[in-house]
Amino acid sequence: MIEWLLVPVAYLIGSVSSAIIVCHLMGLDDPREQGSGNPGATNVMRIGGKKAAAITLVGDALKGLIPVLISKSLGVDTILLSLIVFAAFLGHLYPVFFGFKGGKGVATTLGVTLGVNWLLGCTVAATWFAVYKISKISSLSALVAAVLTPLYVWLIVGDINLLAIFIVISVVLLWRHKSNIRRLLSGEEA
Fold first, then answer.
1. What pLDDT digit, counting tens, does each position of 131-172 carry?
2. How many other CB atoms are found less than 10 A from the CB of residue 58?
């Protein structure tokens, strides 16, 4: 039963905002108050450049990856693993340490997919990169990857518990990108 403590631990790890910490350490403005107001790698790139964004992206991915890898090393079942995946993701969206105002969850989702299965994570990342290479629109890349992730989970992992949680994550990612979707549909997305 002690393994169930991994759920709140995953949430707490997910709650560490890489964007806010990176911006603070690099002497940049708080990403919640600049650009899009989103504490994520894309907004950090707008306000601090590629180096700050890359560090943020790696940090956000790691906070999804680490709890999943720890959980898998302890041999948790896929029901508990699914809850740990979701807790890390939820921590990024609603971080307890930063007033529950977090990012959209794209990089953390990448981290949890890499933790669940390296081929799954690489497939999700390749989808994002392929769409970005064609469109040059980060949000569109994230949306396409989010929509396809449950399909990849089913084809690569084949577990119903993980499929269910990644469907939920994909729906939440779409919801968190609703303003981006409106701008994409109106042709105004940068």
1. 999 999 988 999 999 999 999 999 999 999 999 999 999 999
2. 16
